[in-house]
Design a protein that fits this description.
Layout: H1 2-7, H2 9-39, H3 45-59, H4 62-79
Length: about 80
């Protein structure tokens, strides 16, 4: 709303689509990876990956779910 009043409808429209396509899936994947890394100490990795997959599938779709699971799966290898 503020962007539309300050810069016009075109900028507000582009910002809305950028948030939908770039920021929201990225934030969801980052939160899922962070949560999975902390929960991984308490629960075996298989259960964490299954939960992350189900959450991402419900929230965004198969592409974001695959990326989120890949990030969660690669994170322990990057730390070591």
């Amino acid at each position: 709303m503020y962007l539309r009043e300050a810069y016009g409808p075109r900028v507000a429209f582009l910002y809305g689509w950028k948030c939908l396509l770039v920021m929201d899936p990225g934030i969801t994947a980052a939160l899922a990876a962070g949560l999975a890394s902390y929960v991984g100490y308490l629960v075996p990795l298989f259960l964490v990956l299954t939960a992350a997959l189900l959450i991402l599938l419900a929230a965004h779709g198969p592409l974001q779910a695959a990326l989120g699971v890949a990030i969660v799966g690669l994170e322990p290898r990057c730390i070591r």
